[in-house]
Amino acid sequence: MHEKVAEKKLVEADPEELIDPIEKQPNFHRLESRIALAGHPLHAMLVAFPIALTACVLGADVFYWWTGDLFWARAGLWAAGMAFLFGVLAGVTGTAELLSVPGIRQRAASWTHFIIAVMLLSILGMNWGFRLLGYEQAVLPFGIMISAFAVGFTGFTGWHGGKLVFEYQIGVSSTGSS
């Protein structure tokens, strides 16, 4: 009986009366980047490199499969290595941002993006490590499958990161806003 009354009150409650307890915490709305260069967030600038390089690995794998030219297998090795290393650099700046800005830390979506990005880094590292053992033999069939999976996972990670920027305005400078 008591549960039904409480449920009825919740259903009939005015939406303006409902309060998100996390939103009321101090610094919840402080979302500006602290890891920045001339006001530009480093994480946002650095993520473009692993994203592009991950796509390049898949492209190199497809071209190697199509042409059989060793150049493409070697290019895939280098692109995979640089995707991983730039991913680590972007990850370090993103982690520093996550841990240093309370408004970012208090959002579950930030932690979701963090976990997915760490998983992506492990995939990128696996792709590079697999190729270090023999880049030509690594491409077919497993290298190209790992590369395709990495590209899909990159899109998934990027979608969550973009959601943080566009929906929550994380990392967006508050200069000039009222």
TrEMBL record:
The chain crosses the membrane at residues 44-66, 78-99, 111-133, 139-159. Coiled coil: none annotated. Keywords: Membrane, Transmembrane, Transmembrane helix. Residues 39-173 form the DUF2231 domain. InterPro entries: DUF2231_TM (IPR019251). This is DUF2231 domain-containing protein. It comes from Croceicoccus marinus.
